[in-house]
Specification:
Low-confidence stretches: none
Number of domains: 2
Distance between the termini: 9 Å
Bound molecules: FE2/S2 (inorganic) cluster, fe (ii) ion
CATH topology of the largest domain: Naphthalene 1,2-dioxygenase Alpha Subunit, Chain A, domain 1
Mean pLDDT: 95
CATH superfamily of the largest domain: Naphthalene 1,2-dioxygenase Alpha Subunit, Chain A, domain 1
Helix content: 10-25%
Strand order of the largest sheet: 10-16-15-14-13-12-11
Number of strands: 16
Strand content: 25-35%
Length: 336
């Protein structure tokens, strides 16, 4: 079944994505090419500032070995001879040399030399260079796209202003992985509404004013803002479709990258960047671990619930679930 027109543009009329999207292995597999290869994916933060930084895009799902260079390129990290991974660890270097048979490449991916290949005909060609992958930067964070459906400038429209508000450098102080027994999209749609805060997050609800909570949607991203009791933003939540979350707090930024493992298992990478230590443990970003566990419990419960023969889809609150509606519309668009 095509998902193309499953979610009405009118939130008051719309039904949510059918539960088959989360349960059927066919959709999980199809999402690789339709959603994850064509969207922009988080690749690295400002800390990756050496000449060569290897990254695997979505380990266990897309599994694409990539190489970020200090000059701002993204290359395939696979040798064009027999396919060995070229760079295993972040390092400074002035060229790339394969550890299998010695093929060499420049830092911009051009084939340089290869032992014992003098008699090979029609060699080298462009196919012996490392493939270049689309890469872009936002507030010091690098994004890549294997087959971009849209340029990054249009993709990140609406997100740029949030990064301008960061005045001090961001220091990566903690990385932590969570694993949740649920489909990746269930995790995202929980993130995309503040509707559940009074019910699920008792302590967060005390620092975020539910009444003034706002959601803005852009073409491929959305921003939610929770205000504190003095009317100042306690937390701003930027979602870049389909799986990157930037949470702006008075003390800095917490990044969550949502990585599918299987239909019912998802890894969430938490990267904590501090810009103002004196504001740590204040506002909506005070107990991120506790809030995370509360969300995981709810999302895992939904994972069980949607398997019921009596559940096929739901509806949206027009005042509280604009972000979830927007996310489902994008999924339907990419999958269609
Ligand atoms: S695999 Fe790289 S030189 Fe052979
Ligand atoms: Fe939550």
């Amino acid at each position: 079944m095509s998902l193309a027109n499953t979610v009405d543009s009118d939130i008051g009329k719309a039904k949510t994505l059918p539960s088959a999207f989360y349960l059927d292995p066919h959709y999980f597999e199809l999402s690789k090419e339709h959603i994850f290869a064509r969207s922009w994916q988080f690749a690295a933060g400002p800390e990756a500032d050496v000449d060569l930084t290897p990254v695997t895009l979505l380990p266990g799902y897309l599994d694409e070995p990539l190489l970020l260079t200090k000059q701002g390129k993204c290359l395939s990290n696979v040798c064009t001879h027999r396919g060995k991974i070229l760079v295993e660890q972040a390092c400074d270097a002035n060229l790339i040399r394969c550890g299998y048979h010695g093929r060499r490449f420049s830092l911009d991916g051009k084939f340089l030399s290869m032992p014992e290949f003098d008699e090979v005909e029609d060699f080298p060609t462009d196919a012996d260079d490392l493939k270049e992958i689309a890469v872009a930067e936002l507030g010091g964070f690098r994004f890549v796209s294997l087959e971009p459906a849209e340029s990054f400038a249009d993709y990140a429209d609406g997100a740029k202003n949030l990064f301008r508000s960061i005045k001090a450098p961001l220091n990566l102080t903690e990385t932590r992985d969570y694993e949740v027994n649920a489909h990746w999209a269930l995790y995202c749609e929980n993130y995309l509404e503040g509707f559940h805060i009074p019910y699920v997050h008792k302590s967060l609800n005390e620092v975020v004013d539910y009444g003034s909570y706002t959601t803005e949607t852009f073409r491929y991203s959305s921003v939610q803002t929770g205000y504190g009791d003095k009317g100042e933003p306690a937390g701003r939540y930027l979602f870049v479709f389909p799986n990157t979350m930037f949470n702006f707090y008075p003390w800095g930024v917490s990044v969550n990258v949502v990585e599918p493992i299987s239909r019912a298992k998802t890894r969430i990478r938490f990267l904590t960047y501090i810009s103002d230590e004196s504001k740590l443990n204040t506002g909506a970003g005070a107990d991120l671990h506790g809030v995370e566990l509360e969300d995981e419990a709810v999302v895992e419960s939904v994972q069980k619930g949607i398997r019921s023969r009596f559940y096929s889809h739901g509806r949206y609150s027009p005042t509280r679930e604009q972000g979830t509606h927007h996310f489902h519309r994008l999924i339907a668009e990419f999958m269609g």
